[in-house]
Amino acid sequence: MTTFEYDVVIVGAGTAGCYAGATLSDAGYDVVIVERKDAEEAGHIACGDALKGADNFPESIPKSDIADAFTNTEVDHGQFEIPQEDAVLDIPVPGELAVIDRWEYGRLVIDGAERAGVEFHYDTVVQDVMQDDDGRVRGVKAKHKGDPRTYEATITLDGAGALSLLQDKADFEDATFDTNVRYSQFASAYREVIEVDEPVEWSDALVFKPTKRSAGYLWYFPRTPTEINVGLGFQMNEEPMKLVKDLREDISQRPELKNATVKDKLGAALPTRRPYDSAVAPGYMAIGDSAAHVNPISGGGIAGAAYAGQYAGEQAIQAIEEGDVSESSLWRYNERVMDHYGGRYAALDIYNIFSTAYDLDDLLALLAAMPAEKLSDALYSGSANVSLKLKLQVLYKSIGHWGTLKNLYDTKNLADRLLDHYETYPSSPDGFESWRRERDHIMDDIYAETGAEPKY
Fold it and tell me: Which residues, in sequence order, are bridge partners of residue 210?
């Protein structure tokens, strides 16, 4: 067996892992990223390729280093197709938006981490976590082409992605780390990159369409006017969809995609839930998809993962310098995530919960009646203010769905209440249980209002 020793071991060469590694290496620490794929496939990840917040990335791997992966910076709005209502919602998207070549982007963030001094061990599959009797994580066990390896480290960062194996192997019984995780909180997705003969008219838009059930949606994101990322996903607690068949059927109904050539295909799981209540344990932090740092409505997680990586890297530096890797010492990482986007994503997840309690046609009719700019506000901020005039307009357009509309309005007020509660996220583990109890009371009210089955 081969043994390695590092200040920090990071599992997964994705966005969060690379930004964490670059942050630590820039500060002079010995860091290794352990990646199960080979050097050629590393960074090849199933993704919609749409990037919200394209103008803002941590400086450890600055935007200038990854800009070559930005293939379409002309996109500035979304189009949500509602065939049942013969409507297309044109939804503005605030801030800078881009569509990227995800494989090229993955290669560039790896290059950036390597320039900062991070080591990469490819073809290395993590199989277990090393943990003391007191619960402190001290590294991982892995195999490299059949050769057993151990990676001993002061801090372990889990960037292994959705439904991380590390969290199955570690014992978090005495930690604050969120173990309230189940398949119903994740989606299964499949995407293809296709090439078409003529530029599509909507090359400046992200196109969405509901699937045959409310549990998912299809997407059409133009990397270029003729290269389109197409895909769909569904919640894992629903009856499985025939992803490839359903996608092919929808593509075949679009004349502009006639004779499309498939260039790449890939599937993955992604979190569609609130961020973990706590993503720390002694000697351990989860980052990116491993801690559900993803917008639960859109599935977007690249920018959030980059910042989670930076925050975890900076907190690891402080903990190592102070010689204290306890939960209390790592807690500031949780605070920064919750302050940046954690509360907003938790509020957005309430609308996912709301959708599970209503008929798809009812929801789509209501959606078609909504002001597009307010849908945009809600999608990206977790809340939206609606004037009396707009309320009256929505009432007129949603005749026949007023019961659902009232429930949505009441749910919005509860989502706002939840968002306010996340602003009181505790500054140490000492206040964590009381904060979580109050949050759970709010969730009980949400389930009672919507009639939805509890998600957590």
Answer: 217
